Amino acid sequence: MKPLLVLCVLLAPLRAHEGRITPDVAEDARVSYEGSQLLKVTARTEGQKEALHKLQDMEGVDTWLRLAINSSTVDVLVKPETADKVKEFLGSSGLTFDVVIDNLQAAIDTENPTMSPEEMEELEGRKGHRMTWQSYHPLADIHGYLDYLAQTYPQFVTLQTIGTSVEGRPLKVLKISSNRPGSPAIWIDGGIHAREWISPASVTYIINELTENRDAHGEAVKNVDWYILPVLNPDGYEYSHRVDRLWRKNRHVNGKCAGTDLNRNFGYKWGGVGSSREPCQETFAGSHPFSEPESAAVSSFIQNQAGSLKVYLSFHSYGQYILHPWGYIRAVPRDHADLSRVGRNIATAMYQAGGASYTVGGAAAMLYPAAGASDDWAKGAARIKYTYTIELRDRGSFGFILPVQYILPTAREALAAVKTLASEIANVR
Ligand SMILES: [Zn+2]
Questions:
Q1: pLDDT at 22 over 50
Q2: 209 is an active site residue
């Protein structure tokens, strides 16, 4: 080991994150995906679609993209130890597949080239923070950037900690104020699912544009108040950077397994279809609605802004969908014509900004039912009219392991989405 590397390893725990200091994880404790393959499996008949349903819930299979109503494919991650079982199942069901990623660990290793400590120091000295949109940053860089903005633009930026995570990390909401009393407001969150790194990257890009490049974004944007939580699940996000790149849930230990799916823990139609009562499952809904401090803090904060919030928007990945309620049932809300019209405007704006096509529809009607998600709660309980979940890029060429050169085009699309929503609510005021 080179002396410089030793120093970095020793220093790492100290600058790890605010709040509780946890020991850093040794390189060899990282979860390895050596030899794991991402398969895109295709059904050609109704019988084969039934087989796809079986496959996506099979033990040992991590389903990245489930079977949607109008789709005939699923994306599944297959580990070497289950490869034989899965391929035998595929063969006997007549399902065909493409190997999209041949060795996931190799993809993970090249996904996110990070800067050297010297480069980071230089950047921080020059800009006052370490944030870029050329790599996926750890939580400390994102929070450091929010602190920098609050200090640099006190006339319109304020930073508030609305609660703390299971492991004691702060939930930091940045408010960008219009400074006009009575302005309509937009809520944006990112990173509710830890492994969806493009989400916090895009949300911080939006923050950057609305603060450091404020004059470029027109009157509608300036007449709106913004509440933005870029990392809703900070424990999971850090864990996905340090230990398991594919971690999804928060880090609440429930018996023998860790993690509650925060996007199944919200208290509207909680515990229904598409969520699990089993703590070891990826969609574990928690022991009761808002059992988790992260989802509970978000719901309290949003309810305290009652009346001013006209938009609830949550960024996820992947699949390129603009989803509106409902998610718990294959029905649409009474005002779905409005949600659908604005959703299509968002899709047009996103396409013009970055060139990717996004599909608009009701979450359960277009994909599959999932109860206890944040968007259903925002619509059904907090009564926020324009409620959307946007699944960012891509459509499964890289999935969660989206290389860094896609950050900027994806983030520009995300910015176009929020500007469309800002124009909409500024006009209907
Ligand atoms: Zn997600």
A1: no
A2: no
